[in-house]
Amino acid sequence: MPLALLALAVGAFGIGTTEFVIMGLLPQIAADYGVTIPTAGLLVTGYALGVVIGAPLLTAFGTKVSRKRMLMLLMGLFVVGNLLSAVAPSFGLMLTGRVVASLAHGSFFGIGSVVAAELVAPDKKAGAIATMFTGLTVANIVGVPLGTFVGQTVGWRTTFAVVAVLGVIGLLGVAKLVPAMPRPEGAHLRRELTAFRNPQVLLAMAMTVLGFGGVFAAITYIAPMMTEVAGYSDGAVTWLLVLFGAGMFLGNLLGGRYADRALMPLLYATLGGLAVVLALFTVVAHDKILAAIAILLVGALGFATVPPLQKRVLDQAHGAPTLASAVNIGAFNLGNALAAWLGGLVIAAGFGYTAPNWVGAVLAAAALGLAFWSAALERRTPATQVHAGSADAGAGSDSGSGSAVSGGVRTPVHH
């Protein structure tokens, strides 16, 4: 395995940790800044919106410079954002730091996957890409719980400082280990934009926003919900996040295995199951054991939707999937932002810390409704159009494109 892949995996580990660790630290951050839990939830919303904005913009900018230099710039941006979060004297500056760090998120995974694929022989490209994204998976099982533990015992600022150090290690690793690569050819933006004329692409992205939003409605406020409602100690939140990470891992395996075989049935099952579990979570959150089981299931069902949702976008985008794929990564984070905001609203309205679970159930059910609508529209589409689209997609596949897997998310890699 090229050592450059290790540098990319370290960067992915840091990004995954900083994205999700905030959930376990919301009570401490809110207390330090003297803000409410719903207000602190804006740290999740702000990060997610930063990804939504940064993914397409910085990916487009990345076509103007070499990939190695762009990766270094992205990791530098990530370090600056986390350092600002670690030292921010006010909540506003803390939020700014979160947004700055988030801008690097989508582009790092998109450009990094291309670099990973080019580091190895053609028959090992998928394995190289998966190795890089292992950092993201490990972050949710190891980095997030450890970051939560450090934040609760030493102080949340230390957590962000450590993440910034990880970013520096990733930056130095990229500088030292990733070989120089030529500047990629300019993207054909006009062609890529044609994908958004297809209503199926827009429906798939809407399913992404609502379905993934269902997960984050509950998980954003998992710390106060488990301590104030279920009766867990602050320290137990660390292990509950490990459980959620394990659910994510299992869900990704499930989604990745069956997305190619039965995409729409998988979406029906996972989105429907997610809606039911989230609705029940409102009730079982009062019981420690049942609450833990619900957290595992939310992670598994929620992240089992990721591969089929991303693949649905790629399938429907036909011959112009690059921008659509990048925007769909942003759509996952738009769902995070929407859910965190709505969850904060219902808590602020006095409905309690379990109320976001109802919000999540409604969002997941809405995504399920869109899935049925999308399938109905597809059945009415003339077969000739479907075959033509498939031919276009196939042509793109045969021209040396690869597939990147980000925790089950498949993104196109053009060489």
If you had to describe this structure to a student in words, what would you say it looks like?
With 415 residues, the protein is mainly alpha-helical. 80% of the residues lie in helices and 3% in strands. The chain has a two-stranded antiparallel ribbon with strand order 1-2. Strand 1 and strand 2 form a beta hairpin. The longest helix has 29 residues. The C terminus is likely disordered. InterPro entries: MFS, MFS_dom, MFS_Efflux_Transporters, MFS_trans_sf. Pfam families: MFS_1 (PF07690). Its main location: membrane.
Helix/strand/pairing class, anyone?
mainly alpha
Number of helices: 19
Low-confidence stretches: 383-415
**Proportion of helical residues:** over 70%
Strand content: under 5%
Looking across the biggest beta sheet, what order are the strands in? 1-2
**Global shape:** globular
**Any idea of the CATH class of the largest domain?**
Mainly Alpha
Radius of gyration, rounded? 20 Å
- What is the CATH architecture descriptor of the largest domain? Up-down Bundle
Keywords: Cell membrane, Membrane, Transmembrane, Transmembrane helix
Transmembrane segments: 38-58, 70-93, 99-121, 128-148, 160-180, 201-224, 236-254, 266-283, 289-309, 330-352, 358-377
Organism: Streptomyces litmocidini
Domain Major facilitator superfamily (MFS) profile: 4-379
Q: Topology, please?
A:
Blueprint: H1 3-20, H2 22-33, H3 37-40, H4 42-61, H5 67-87, H6 91-102, H7 105-118, H8 125-153, H9 156-177, H10 189-193, H11 199-219, H12 222-230, H13 236-258, H14 263-284, H15 288-304, H16 306-317, H17 321-348, H18 355-380, H19 383-398, E1 401-406, E2 409-414
Antiparallel strand pairs: 1-2
Helix pairs in contact: 1-7, 1-8, 1-9, 2-8, 4-6, 4-7, 4-17, 5-6, 5-7, 5-9, 7-8, 8-9, 8-13, 11-14, 11-15, 11-16, 11-17, 11-18, 13-15, 14-15, 14-16, 14-18, 16-17, 17-18
